[in-house]
């Protein structure tokens, strides 16, 4: 139908997709996490596979079935995701950064399981910034002069002064990626649900395009946008 991906449109292309949410350890049994299910990223990996791409999927704690016919790596923290992503990106034609990366991690990780204090004082958690993996991919691409299409994701809410699209345009510029897949989130609007709505912003055009439907339908739309942006012909 209308939303199909041409079967050979990414034939021979190496597509790296990250999906899921990182966990930042506090001690051997505790972590800071997020509510990403990984469904959208995994749907993109599946759609890219169906378009003929050679797909490598890096997953962090996804809550959904993994696709067959793609190479899969498992990571947990943002640091592990960074190392795996930068290494795999060196041999990728397309990088799709769909993972929800924790912006911060605990400054120190307990070697042993933390105990409650005996004097009644409550602990204070100090956080430090995680690396920006998407920016790292873009920097590596530019430094190594790779011919690579880089796709970011952003879940935004507007505020009193700025629309979701304004935030999206600013983020696209800040990240330096080619495409930004934007969706508007309320707490239960996107996370874990199977229907979704996205707008794709391109660094190379003022026009935006959008799709709504199941995560598989939206994934096929994203893969079509990737195929046309990568100049390999969507049809
Ligand atoms: N991202 C990343 N590394 C990070 C944070 C985010 O690679 N440390 C990637 C995400 O995978 C996503 C894109 O950057 O593709 C946008 O994520 P988002 O959280 O919206 O961006 P931030 O720069 O963290 O901005 P914000 O302050 O709005 O969270
Ligand atoms: Ca963030």
Automatic annotation (TrEMBL):
Pathway: Cofactor biosynthesis; coenzyme A biosynthesis; CoA from (R)-pantothenate: step 2/5; Cofactor biosynthesis; coenzyme A biosynthesis; CoA from (R)-pantothenate: step 3/5. One of its GO terms (molecular function) is phosphopantothenoylcysteine decarboxylase activity. The keyword Ribonucleoprotein does not apply. Its cofactor is FMN; Mg(2+). Its EC number is 4.1.1.36, 6.3.2.5. Residues 10-228 form the DNA/pantothenate metabolism flavoprotein C-terminal domain. GO terms for cellular component: phosphopantothenoylcysteine decarboxylase complex. This is Coenzyme A biosynthesis bifunctional protein CoaBC. The gene is coaBC. The chain holds residues 196 to 430 of 431 of the full protein.
């Amino acid at each position: 139908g209308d939303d199909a991906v041409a079967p050979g449109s990414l034939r021979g292309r190496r597509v790296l997709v990250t999906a899921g949410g990182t966990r930042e350890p506090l001690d051997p049994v505790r972590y800071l996490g997020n509510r990403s299910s990984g469904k959208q990223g995994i749907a993109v990996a599946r759609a890219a596979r169906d378009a003929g791409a050679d797909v490598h999927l890096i997953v962090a704690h996804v809550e959904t079935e993994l696709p067959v016919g793609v190479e899969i790596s498992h990571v947990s923290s943002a640091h592990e995701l960074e190392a795996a992503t930068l290494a795999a990106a060196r041999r990728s034609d397309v990088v799709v950064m769909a993972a929800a990366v924790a912006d911060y991690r605990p400054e120190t990780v307990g070697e042993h399981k933390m105990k409650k204090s005996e004097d009644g004082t409550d602990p204070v958690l100090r956080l430090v910034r995680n690396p920006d993996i998407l920016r790292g991919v873009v920097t590596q691409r530019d430094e190594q002069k790779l011919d690579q299409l880089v796709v970011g994701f952003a879940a935004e809410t507007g505020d009193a002064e700025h629309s979701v699209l304004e935030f999206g345009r600013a983020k696209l510029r800040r990240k330096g990626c080619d495409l930004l897949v934007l969706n508007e989130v309320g707490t239960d609007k996107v996370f874990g649900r199977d229907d979704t709505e996205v707008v794709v912003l391109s660094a190379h055009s003022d026009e935006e395009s959008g799709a709504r439907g199941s995560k598989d339908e939206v994934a096929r739309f994203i893969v079509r946008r990737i195929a046309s942006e990568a100049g390999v012909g969507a049809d």
